[in-house]
């Protein structure tokens, strides 16, 4: 079984009540509340939820974005490429000219780490696995959970019927069918993501024409009865219990269909995010976290610029700049950003050397990531690379330290342990890992 140690959440009865109120008042998604919905649906209670609940959005740049063409440019050097820098709102800090909107906002809500160093640089292999798990090793044949699944477990509410974890993809990526998606492992099926490819809503979220709502309710009741009878005769098994929990939430997930409907947003809001699939999925992500979904992953591909690196980044970086800045503004305008952490990173960086195809290859030795919003000290630029970006010059950061910083920003104990099904303790990050205090508010 899983044994959470020192679970971090608000713990306030008012806080728990406000969450139930929100779900009950917006879509009738909370089942079994003993309190009247009219009392729970009071606007001040809903507003308290928006202020208090922690959530996270991961912007994952599939394929490996270049640090030189984003957060750590080196113009005028033999590794720098053709783009120039622009001054940010933080005195003395310059980033690539392709990111003017984020340059204006850096002092408001974002910290940049320029000295992340990872051990390998392969697609869909050890690097992606290690990065998504904070450099934790698998335990024998037991695969350890990814960041999104851990965050969805830590930040979710037990009685919530909205999704705990949603992943939006502009493309599935990976080699030899090794798709870069999150996995819950021993945490259980509840925390597995709902993966959405090239659209804004999950497949099969509506009843087929041949099945009435009454039929569906009766089938769900029969399934629940059979499942409860089956579980009652057995010693507690976390796999079976997780399977049962996942099925018991189906109707609540179906009732959340409207949360994915970006057509309900004013046109001026949709226009701000832009017409790209990435932008429209980011708007859907904002709708979801506002409704209480604790973790959303936004995948933006494809950054693997072995050839024509500068053309690829000239196309992709402005879209990232627009969508990221709009998402942060939108969250801030709605009072959500102070309790929403936006994490922007990739599977690797790109080489300082420019190859014969005007491209940059895979690079893990030194590259950049960003954190915005909840628990982050805005305007901080932590770590430094040398003059031509070939090595870390100051404050090297491991993936484990980066993940510990993410957990700390969200108020989660990064050394908290779970027990695996066979009783082995596994911490969220490797023992003795420290978060980066300079980045935290």
Question: How are the SSEs placed, and which strands pair?
Answer:
Elements: H1 13-27, H2 37-40, H3 43-52, E1 55-61, E2 85-87, E3 94-96, H4 100-109, E4 110-116, H5 126-132, H6 147-155, E5 165-169, E6 194-197, H7 213-232, H8 238-248, H9 250-255, H10 267-273, H11 277-290, E7 295-300, H12 309-333, E8 340-346, E9 349-350, E10 362-363, E11 367-373, E12 381-382, E13 384-385, E14 392-394, H13 399-409, E15 417-419, E16 425-427
Parallel strand pairs: 1-7, 1-8, 4-12, 5-6, 5-7
Antiparallel strand pairs: 2-3, 4-11, 8-11, 9-10, 13-14, 15-16
Helix pairs in contact: 1-3, 4-12, 7-8, 11-12
Can you give a write-up of this model?
This protein is α/β, with parallel strands linked by helices and 441 residues long. Helices cover 34% and strands 15% of the residues. An eight-stranded mixed beta sheet has the order 6-5-7-1-8-11-4-12, with helices on both faces. The protein has a two-stranded antiparallel sheet with strand order 2-3. Strands 9-10 form a two-stranded antiparallel sheet. Strand 15 and strand 16 form a beta hairpin.
Which features would summarize this protein structure in a list?
441 residues, alpha/beta, 34% helix, two-stranded antiparallel sheet, Alkaline Phosphatase, subunit A, 16 strands
């Amino acid at each position: 079984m899983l044994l959470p140690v020192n679970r971090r959440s608000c713990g306030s009865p008012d806080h728990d009540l406000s969450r139930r109120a929100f779900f009950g008042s917006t879509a009738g998604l909370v089942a079994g509340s003993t309190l009247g919905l009219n009392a729970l649906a009071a606007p001040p209670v809903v507003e308290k939820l928006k202020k208090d609940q922690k959530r996270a959005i991961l912007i994952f740049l599939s394929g490996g974005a270049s640090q030189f063409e984003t957060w750590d440019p080196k113009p005028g050097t033999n590794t720098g490429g053709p783009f120039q820098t622009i001054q940010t709102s933080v005195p003395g800090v310059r980033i690539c000219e392709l990111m003017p909107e984020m340059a204006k906002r850096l002092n408001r809500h974002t910290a940049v780490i320029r000295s992340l160093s990872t051990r390998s640089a392969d697609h869909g292999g050890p690097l992606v696995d290690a990065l998504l798990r904070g450099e934790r090793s698998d335990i024998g044949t037991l695969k350890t959970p990814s960041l999104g699944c851990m965050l969805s477990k830590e930040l979710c509410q037990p009685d919530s019927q909205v999704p705990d974890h949603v992943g939006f993809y502009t493309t599935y990526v990976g080699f030899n069918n090794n798709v870069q998606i999150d996995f819950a492992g021993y945490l259980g099926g509840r925390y597995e993501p709902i993966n959405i490819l090239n659209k804004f809503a999950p497949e099969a979220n509506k009843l087929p024409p041949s099945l009435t709502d009454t039929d569906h309710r009766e089938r769900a009741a029969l399934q629940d009865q059979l499942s409860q009878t089956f579980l009652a005769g057995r010693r507690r098994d976390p796999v079976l219990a997780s399977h049962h929990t996942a099925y018991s939430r189906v109707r609540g997930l179906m009732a959340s269909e409207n949360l994915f409907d970006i057509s309900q947003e004013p046109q001026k809001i949709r226009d701000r995010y832009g017409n790209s699939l990435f932008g429209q999925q980011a708007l859907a992500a904002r709708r979801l976290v506002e409704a209480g979904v604790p973790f959303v992953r936004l995948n933006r591909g494809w950054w693997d610029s072995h050839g024509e690196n500068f053309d690829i980044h000239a196309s992709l970086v402005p879209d990232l700049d627009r969508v990221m800045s709009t998402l942060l503004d939108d969250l801030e305008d709605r009072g959500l950003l102070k309790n929403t952490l936006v994490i922007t990173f990739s599977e690797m960086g790109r080489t300082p050397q420019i190859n014969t195809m005007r491209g940059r290859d895979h690079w893990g030795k030194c590259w950049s990531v960003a954190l915005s919003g909840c628990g982050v000290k805005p305007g901080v630029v932590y770590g430094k690379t040398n003059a031509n970006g070939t090595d870390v010059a100051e404050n090297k950061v491991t993936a484990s330290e980066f993940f510990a910083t993410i957990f700390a920003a969200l108020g989660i104990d990064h050394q908290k342990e779970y027990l695996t099904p066979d009783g082995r303790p596994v911490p969220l990050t490797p023992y003795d890992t420290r978060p980066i205090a300079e980045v935290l508010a």
